[in-house]
C-alpha cells in the first residue's frame, strides 16, 4: 500500500518494469492535493501510456510532489508520462533532489509540455539522472505557464 500524506504550505506502486524502484516500499509520497477519482497512487501503478490511470490535482495552480525515501537511494533514470485530453495548455515541470534531508535541493531538470487536444495529448520522457544518496525527490508542476486556472496531471513517475 502506498504511504502518502497531503502536503501543507509548510512541507514536513507497484513496480511495472524490471529494474524499477518500488516506491511504495521505499518512500512516503507527499502531494499538495489530489482529486478524489484521480489519487497520486495512480502515478505509481502499472496502467501506463495514453489512456492509463493518472493523478489529477484537487485544486488548480502549482502543485508539489515529494518522495521522502526511508533510506538514501541511488537514482539512475527517471521516466515520466503526462496526458491532457481536454485543455490546451503548457505544463511546466521541475525535478529536484535533496541529499541532506531537505536542507538543500539541486534542480536536475526543467521541462515544458504543450498540449493541444485533440492533437497533442500525451508526452513521455526518460532522463538519465545519476545521483547517489538521494533522500528526497521533488517535482514542482505548474499546470499552465500562461496562468490559467488549470489542474496539474501526471500519468507515470518511475525511477530506476
Structural overview:
The chain is mainly beta and 160 residues long. Helices cover 2% and strands 49% of the residues. It has one helix and nine strands, in the order βαββββββββ. The strands form two sheets. Strands 1, 2, 4, 5, 6, 7 and 9 form a seven-stranded mixed beta sheet that branches. It is globular. Mean pLDDT is 92; it is low at 9-15.
Number of DSSP strands? 9
Beta-strand percentage range: over 45%
Mean pLDDT: 92
Q: Write down the Rg.
A: 15 Å
Distance between the termini: 20 Å
Unreliable spans: 9-15
What would the principal axes of the Cα set say about the shape? globular
Number of helices: 1
Question: What structural class results from the helix and strand content?
Answer: mainly beta
- Helical fraction equals under 10%
Which H/E pattern describes the elements? EHEEEEEEEE
Biggest sheet character: 7 strands, mixed
